[in-house]
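User: Can you predict the 3D structure of Cell division protein FtsX? Sequence below.
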Amino acid sequence: MANLSQEMHEQNTSMIGKMIAYLLRHLQQGIGSLGDLWRTPFTSVMTILVLGISLTLPATLHMFVKNAKAISEQWDSASEINVFLKLSVTDKAAKNLVQRIRLYPEVAEVKYISANQALEEFKRLSGFGQALEYLSTNPLPATILVTPTKRASQAQAAGELLQKLENEKEVAQGKLDLEWLTRLEAVTELIEDIVLGIASLLCLSVVLIIGNTIRLAILNQRDAIAVMKLVGATDSFIQRPFLYSGVWYGVLGGMVAVLCVEMLAIYLTGSLAKLTDLYQSSFMLQGLDGSEMLLLIGAAVSLGLAGSYLSVRKHIRAIEPTAD
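Assistant: Sure. Here are the predicted structure tokens for Cell division protein FtsX:
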């Protein structure tokens, strides 16, 4: 039993030692690949800037879409449905209807305007106050202004709410301008599709740029790679520093993209402030939050790793030592 325990202990110790050696080897090659980037500063900086600027455009468009959605949500929450009641509806019946509408889960706010209040407001705004005094009866119906909740303010949900209100027996007609809501949603969806298309093309270009950069680095070290293979180095061992180079390109390029997007957000905030002041309103442009920054850097790392992987799989395998 003692010998068995000792053997198990030795196996565990050996396994831990191998894992530590494996991690140290990766760490050493990762730091070494960063040194390789440093030894070719012009090529490295140009590649990093191209990668960062390529990712800045879709990230900036995403920021604009996010802010556009925030604005549209504010507009949607302010949209109202005008519910016109039948002329025969009494004031008591109208108030009972208001209480029922308040219980709708899709309704955020309800405002009741009686027929007399509507007539007085029409007199004040139309300029025909004296002429309207000769009317024997009030031609205007009582009106209920219904403000939907944010969820119910979307075009389809607002249309369903309008239909539900018109089914009430006291209601003569409901009115909601759905065209601008539909157009706003269509424009937002179009921008999202454009962002997705541009992002896909730029991501492909980033992969090709990184792949070409790694390819040139491999060709520059062709003789050294051939010697390493001659002394028994495996393809995976030779590929590893180049893969780490792609990761470093992604990390640094992603940081450049984050910096560019934040600088654009700061610059555009001043211009938007001047525009919103003209309309006596305020709007603060939202930049990328922490999770979006990490996602952008992670996407850049993934693209850098993909480009370097495609390049090393093809070109390192093609290099074989030749006997002189």
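The chain has a mean pLDDT of 77. DSSP finds ten helices and four strands in the chain.
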